């Protein structure tokens, strides 16, 4: 059976997901299209060789409704014989896209495939597809009468693991500090591709994340009010000391990311040196009320499949949907704090829903290469009480 390798991984800068954000003036299709073009150009790969484009996207309405990977491919000027498909596994959509690409290569269905994700939350706001409809249905609600929004679930997780407001805020401040240090030291330079955004009669180039706040501190974050302490939830959970705020939660963001996945044979034939491979992957379902605890069983499952221990892992990315998620994870897997989200996470870099899984993997690959690490683990909580987990192995000792 052929092996599957990750040849390269890139991402856009992260833009604030509001009308004034740095990427808000760019259609999401064109945002992803520029990332795809940069990925192939810097590797010298003929676009005609690509057999599929697998793209994570959560808000598949409006400007993201027409199979965004297909439209992005066409907007980049690439040949029209290449198809695309959209994956929606909530926050893990981009990570699942990578897994599907790898599985396709391992099955012999692909030799060259692109996996990634896109989300323009400034242009397609979160929840746009619901139109005030009930997505759960009466039978699911009857089975799980305690279903709550994700923010309330984050509060329940914080309460279950005894996480104080100060700990959540301290974690959030550290996320910004780590991301700021990485940016200042050039650690993100290899993974970010500049994006051209229309600006009046011309265009401007966005080359850096605008979401990082280097001055964040426990003191400044303490001024923010809890975001989810509203009726009817305060009445339903009188025991909860409400502490989840906009400051210790992920940011609404615009962004895109893409990875080039190939069979080992095709990469060798093209003279390309792979950067990483997938060791094991797993997906699980967990309590749909707590919702955000899926990374715990997902981590156990993927470590078991890989035949590795948590101590074998050099760096771990646990998506910072809310600070309570990685803190609860670390309570169950007490690794050294420096190994968990070493370059900051979604609190500092933002969470463009469908793109985040590919963005985390891109950042993880770069971090491991630049620090001499071998194994990395990535896991993400997902709405509905699900989670993906993936272990990668670095194949290069240092960046090209």
Describe this structure in words.
With 400 residues, this protein is an alpha/beta fold. Helices cover 32% and strands 20% of the residues. The chain has 13 helices and twelve strands. It has helices at residues 28-43, 68-75, 93-106, 138-143, 150-160, 165-184, 218-221, 233-236, 264-269, 295-306, 324-332, 346-349, 356-371, and strands at residues 4-11, 15-16, 53-56, 84-87, 112-120, 195-199, 202-206, 253-263, 276-285, 315-318, 375-382, 386-394. The strands form three sheets. Strands 1, 2, 3, 4, 5 and 8 form a six-stranded mixed beta sheet that branches. A hairpin with a 2-residue loop joins strand 6 and strand 7. Helix 1 (28-43) crosses helix 2 and helix 3 (93-106) crosses helix 13. It is globular and about 60 Å long.
Question: Layout of SSEs?
Answer:
Blueprint: E1 4-11, E2 15-16, H1 28-43, E3 53-56, H2 68-75, E4 84-87, H3 93-106, E5 112-120, H4 138-143, H5 150-160, H6 165-184, E6 195-199, E7 202-206, H7 218-221, H8 233-236, E8 253-263, H9 264-269, E9 276-285, H10 295-306, E10 315-318, H11 324-332, H12 346-349, H13 356-371, E11 375-382, E12 386-394
Parallel strand pairs: 3-4, 3-5, 10-11
Antiparallel strand pairs: 1-8, 2-8, 5-8, 6-7, 9-12, 11-12
Organism: Dactylosporangium maewongense
Family: Belongs to the thiolase-like superfamily. Thiolase family.
Keywords: Acyltransferase, Transferase
């Amino acid at each position: 059976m052929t092996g599957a390798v990750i040849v390269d991984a890139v991402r856009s800068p992260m833009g604030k997901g509001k009308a004034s954000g740095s990427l808000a003036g760019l259609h999401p299709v064109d945002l992803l299209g520029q990332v795809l073009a940069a990925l192939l150009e810097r590797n010298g790969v003929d676009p005609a060789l690509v057999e599929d484009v697998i793209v994570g996207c959560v808000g598949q309405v409006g400007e993201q409704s027409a199979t965004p990977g297909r439209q992005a491919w066409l907007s980049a000027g690439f040949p029209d014989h290449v198809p695309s498909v959209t994956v929606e596994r909530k926050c893990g959509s981009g990570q699942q896209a990578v897994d599907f690409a790898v599985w396709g290569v391992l099955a012999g269905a692909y030799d060259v495939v692109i996996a990634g994700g896109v989300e323009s939350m400034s242009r397609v706001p979160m929840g746009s597809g619901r139109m005030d409809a009930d997505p759960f249905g009466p039978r699911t609600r009857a089975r799980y009468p305690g279903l709550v929004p994700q923010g309330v679930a984050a509060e329940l997780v914080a309460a279950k693991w005894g996480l104080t407001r100060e700990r959540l805020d301290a974690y959030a401040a550290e996320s910004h500090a780590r991301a700021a240090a990485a940016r200042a030291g050039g650690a993100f330079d290899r993974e970010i591709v500049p994006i051209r955004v229309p600006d009046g009669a011309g265009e401007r180039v966005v080359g850096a994340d605008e979401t990082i706040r280097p001055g964040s501190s426990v003191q400044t974050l303490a001024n923010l009010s809890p975001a989810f302490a509203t009726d009817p939830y305060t009445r339903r959970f009188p025991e909860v000391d409400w502490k989840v705020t906009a400051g210790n939660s992920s940011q609404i963001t615009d962004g895109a990311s893409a990875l080039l996945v190939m069979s080992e044979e095709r990469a060798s034939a093209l003279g390309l040196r792979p950067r990483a491979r997938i060791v094991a992957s797993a997906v699980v379902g967990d309590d749909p009320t707590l919702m955000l605890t899926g990374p715990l069983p997902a981590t156990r499952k993927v470590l078991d499949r890989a035949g590795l221990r948590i101590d074998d892992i050099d760096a771990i990315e646990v998506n910072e949907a809310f600070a309570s998620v990685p803190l609860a994870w670390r309570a169950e897997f007490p690794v050294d704090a420096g190994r968990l989200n070493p370059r900051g996470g979604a609190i500092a870099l933002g969470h463009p829903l469908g793109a985040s899984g590919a963005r985390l993997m891109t950042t993880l690959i770069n971090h491991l290469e630049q620090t001499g690490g071998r194994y990395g683990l990535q896991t993400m909580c997902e709405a509905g009480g699900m989670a993906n987990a993936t272990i990668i192995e670095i194949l290069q000792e240092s960046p090209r």
